[in-house]
Design goal:
The chain is 16% helix and 21% strand. It is α+β, with helices and mostly antiparallel strands.
């Protein structure tokens, strides 16, 4: 296999295709501290794209309750187990040498799904990515064990109860919202024997050419996140298309001037957990420095949002602000070694970070650039940090402005939520 550079792993890795990169990359951040598991995003996607015959079990967007939930059931635990079998005790990170640009999380010394592919014996020919085909039963429930709490490090004999105080709850669960990560090195693309899967050069969205697909389900097997689906009525595979008509600015209701708009799942989020964007990519696959792009700022500068299972090796373009109350060993397995740093920042955000966090779901159009207008100090709050120390947070009522692709101002929002008092002469109080 050719070698390609994976900045999330901090090293080169094997991949079935030669290195190639789009001019820009579709990416997003989900703040898991805010997700309430309402499934509004799930239904918005389902009612737009997967409501037809043969798509009953296809959920391009789903929200699962971790640690026990998952769609298909136990998708991540099964793949982690396969990787551990392929490389016993070797799936570890070396965080001794970090580089903010080349290896922000350290170096992953283990095997990716591509490097471990030949470790699993099979009779149907060579495997390009380590994976498995879920059983029919595993596809039946999009959120089995919904809202089921875990405790005492998942011991089966653990009793209910215990502390629910920060920094780590003894009894806990959290909602993990998921869509296709539109990876830089997709497992589905690398596994397809028909070359039916490709990344759009203009935005990196991963699509399946339906005219070439023959429904071999190698993409289903090879995608570590199980976000490629087989549709029996057409005998082809389907997956999230990143709502590319909206990315292209063709939704005139959301974008009267033709500016890129957020996907349906993003725009429908009532918990304001989502921030979507497009980042520039250079010829080497690195993110072009763009500190006024909110995604670049939160992901590359502040490292507040982390990739989902970066050790799989696909370099996913979906990032998550990890939940504060979950045991750290679980979060590090899911998001890599940057968890402590991310949670510490989120626990007591500084002035600029607090302002940027207001942009989540503030506008349907994609925000390409932000500015901050400074305001007065409105509060000082004592914050207990994850290590137990105390810190004073100064809160300023700054105004953050967001601009679309055409540099048009599309959002202006303050840190302190304004209060409006209705006139009793015109509005009857019904309480």
């Amino acid at each position: 296999m050719p070698n390609v550079n994976n900045w999330q792993l901090g090293r080169e890795m094997s991949y079935p295709h030669e290195e190639s990169h789009p001019k820009s990359q579709f990416a997003f951040i989900f703040n898991l501290n805010r997700c309430i598991g309402c499934q509004t995003c799930t239904i918005a996607c389902k009612s737009t794209w997967t409501f037809s015959k043969g798509q009953e079990l296809i959920w391009w967007n789903n929200v699962e309750s971790k640690p026990y939930g998952g769609y298909p059931n136990n998708w991540d635990a099964k793949l982690l187990d396969l990787l551990e079998q392929a490389n016993p005790g070797g799936q570890v990170w070396d965080t001794s040498e970090k580089d903010p640009t080349k290896k922000p999380y350290g170096v992953f010394d283990g095997m990716t799904i591509f490097e471990a592919a030949d470790k699993k014996p099979r009779t149907g020919g060579p495997q390009q990515a380590l994976g498995y085909l879920p059983t029919d039963d595993e596809w039946r429930a999009p959120n089995r064990h919904e809202d089921t709490a875990a405790g005492a490090d998942f011991k089966k004999d653990a009793q209910s109860g215990g502390s629910v105080e920060l920094p780590e709850h003894k009894v806990w669960f959290f909602h993990l919202a998921r869509i296709c990560n539109h990876c830089t090195y997709p497992g589905c693309l690398g596994s397809c024997p028909r070359n039916a899967i490709y990344k759009r050069p203009e935005d990196g969205i991963v699509l399946i050419d339906q005219s070439r697909c023959r429904g071999y389900r190698k993409c289903v097997e090879g995608c570590p996140y199980k976000k490629a689906y087989y549709r029996p009525t057409t005998r082809t595979s389907e997956k999230c298309i990143g709502c590319y008509p909206r990315i292209e600015g063709r939704d005139k209701n959301a974008s009267p001037t033709g500016a890129p708009a957020e996907t349906r799942c993003m725009a429908a989020c009532v918990g304001n957990i989502r921030l979507q964007g497009v980042v520039k990519i250079d010829d080497n696959g690195d993110w072009t420095e763009d500190p006024k792009n909110p995604l670049y700022y939160l992901i590359r500068e502040r490292e507040l949002a982390l990739p989902l299972y970066p050790q799989f090796g696909t370099e996913p373009n979906g990032y998550y602000v990890p939940p504060r109350w979950v045991p750290r060993n679980y979060l590090k397995q899911m998001f890599g070694p940057g968890v402590e740093h991310a949670i510490e920042q989120y626990s007591c955000p500084d002035r600029e970070l607090l302002a940027i966090l207001q942009l989540f779901r503030a506008q349907q159009q994609i925000i390409f650039r932000y500015e901050i207008e400074k305001g007065p100090k409105v509060a000082e709050v004592e914050v207990t940090m994850p290590d137990g120390s105390s810190k004073t947070q100064e809160i300023f009522n700054d105004t953050v402005l967001g601009y679309n692709k055409f540099d048009e101002e599309v959002v202006r929002i303050t840190v302190e939520e304004p209060t409006f008092e209705r006139s009793p002469e015109h509005h009857v109080n019904s309480i």
